[in-house]
User: Which sequence fits this backbone?
């Protein structure tokens, strides 16, 4: 009798866990734009929609910023302490303020201590090592291209710079390529399972100098309980018309700043210090 009761208890637990997993991967029962706000600085125009996806017992809130620039040079990157270093970290808003950023997000937290991957920032080759990740290239004309996992050849970084690459980010995974959601790798530096919800930061390119930036809140009960899946990120970028989209550092780092004001609600009580940002300026 005891064995039978134990078996029933274990079966009930397994069914409950399966139900929870299924819930995390299901479609939301409502999708709403709760608020839209915009900025027009002449040479830069930004429109931000705050979305709410409601599920049976949880909610997800995230921000979709469409950025239109007059020149590709208005998209820049900056380091904490203004130096490529493993020792420097600052809040996204602090770095953004020094650079008069209109819109800024946290970058890829290149994590100097890893000493791997290709890193190019503002046209300067900073690291050229083997890579086990997807990488995002930004060209001088503002266009994006991807180096899928396993395809980067160590020692060719200078060639990319010569070809006009001004930025290279190394976090990932790649979300969208050629306008289509890509098949996510089963094994990566972060989980790619469709049941995993986290705060996220990601960037996409539509065409010309039109970009889409998404920051998803998470780990905030009653606001954005757990966060966003990578699969949901993919879907939104495709819906926004992005040709290429790429996941950046997320979790407690996920931050969006507009004209010095924090747009989203970070998962911690304050902004997490990060190594680098991506920003758009006049």
Assistant:
């Amino acid at each position: 009798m005891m064995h039978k009761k134990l078996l029933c208890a274990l079966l009930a637990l397994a069914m409950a866990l399966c139900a929870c997993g299924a819930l995390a991967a299901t479609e939301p029962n409502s999708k709403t734009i709760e608020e839209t706000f915009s900025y027009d600085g002449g040479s830069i125009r930004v429109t931000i929609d705050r979305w709410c996806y409601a599920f049976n017992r949880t909610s997800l809130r995230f921000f979709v910023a469409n950025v239109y620039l007059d020149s590709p040079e208005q998209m820049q990157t900056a380091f904490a302490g203004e130096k490529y270093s493993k020792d420097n970290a600052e809040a996204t808003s602090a770095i953004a303020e020094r650079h008069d950023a209109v819109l800024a997000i946290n970058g890829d937290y290149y994590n100097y201590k890893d000493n791997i991957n290709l890193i190019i920032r503002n046209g300067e080759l900073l690291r050229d090592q083997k890579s086990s990740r997807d990488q995002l290239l930004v060209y001088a004309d503002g266009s994006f291209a991807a180096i899928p996992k396993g395809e980067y050849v160590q020692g060719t970084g200078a060639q990319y710079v010569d070809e006009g690459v001004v930025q290279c980010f190394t976090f990932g995974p790649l979300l969208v390529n050629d306008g289509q959601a890509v098949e996510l790798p089963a094994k990566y530096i972060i989980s790619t399972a469709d049941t995993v919800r986290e705060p996220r930061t990601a960037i996409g390119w539509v065409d010309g100098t039109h970009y889409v930036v998404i920051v998803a809140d998470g780990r905030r009960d009653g606001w954005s309980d757990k966060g966003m899946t990578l699969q949901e990120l993919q879907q939104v970028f495709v819906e926004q018309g992005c040709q290429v989209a790429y996941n950046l550092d997320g979790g407690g780092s996920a931050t969006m700043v507009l004209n010095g004001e924090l747009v989203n609600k970070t998962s911690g009580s304050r902004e997490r210090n990060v190594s680098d940002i991506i920003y758009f300026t006049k």
